[in-house]
Amino acid sequence: MLVDDHAVVREGYRSLLQKQPGLRVVAEAGDGAEAYRLFKTVRPGLVIMDLSMPGFGGVEAIRRIRQWDAAARVLVFTMHQNAAYAVQAIRAGARGYVTKSSPPNALVRAIFEVLQGKVALSADVDHELALSRIAEAPAATDVLSPREFEILRLLLAEKTTAEIAGTLNLSHKTVANTHYLIKGKLGVASDIQLVLLALRQGILTADGGLDGALSDPRA
Fold it and tell me: What is the mean pLDDT of the chain?
């Protein structure tokens, strides 16, 4: 099953994969919620999952799929090279992580490795993870759970507490409390500091579209 919010991207790697012996695309989804719903219906042998999509993202979709089926095989295929995203995706249950800047054969190789029960990483992500392990301080997001990381991602996308609660089917209070907990775990006192930390860690790029501070979780 292919999960990506860009139909043109899905078309491209559907064409690539269907040329491979033994591979067949049985379903496609444009967001995490649709991916979770289709997985329970179609039960594909492998899910190729993007991370940044409308609604809840790939990390949350992986977490829900693996919670429903602990044997599910998920391979992340994303633009995010940052080690923090790879760590969170693997914690959520992904068995592989390939960036979209990788050559096509890297994706094909990773697919067969995951289907064989192995863990597959593209070379650039493997390098980033190695650098993160030898850094003087670990990536701040190492302390967050996949659910907390997903809420952080939505906060950085300027979603309000109410919008996040609706997207993740959580209560307003749960999201507000988690927002406060995230800041505590990351050692920041304000949302401005949270944004700056995300920039330093590469979770958020300088052109990420943030026009101001995040909403107060107690509002």
Answer: 84
User: CB under 8 Å to 18, separation ≥6 — which residues?
Assistant: 24, 25
Domain parsing of the chain, residue ranges: 2-134, 140-200
**Could you read off the pLDDT of 116-172 as tens digits, one per residue?**
999 898 888 877 776 565 454 456 667 888 889 889 989 988 889 999 999 999 999
Identify which of 166, 214, 173, 164 has the alpha carbon closest to the alpha carbon of residue 194. 214
- Name the E strands within the chain: 2-3, 28-29, 47-49, 74-78, 96-99, 120-121
Q: Is 76 helix (H, G, I), strand (E, B) or coil?
A: strand
Among 30, 17, 75, smallest CA distance to 49 is for: 75
Average pLDDT over residues 193-203: 79
Partners of 120 in the β-ladder: 96
CA atoms of 41 and 154, how far apart (whole Å): 27
- CATH class of domain segment(s) 140-200: mainly alpha
pTM of the model: 0.67
Tokens of 217: 């979780």
Architecture of the CATH domain 2-134: 3-Layer(aba) Sandwich (3.40)
Q: What confidence score (pLDDT) does residue 60 get? A: 92
pLDDT (tens digit per residue) in 66-104: 999 999 999 999 988 877 788 888 888 999 999 999 998
Tokens representing 127 are 């390098």
Domains 2-134 and 140-200 share a fold: no
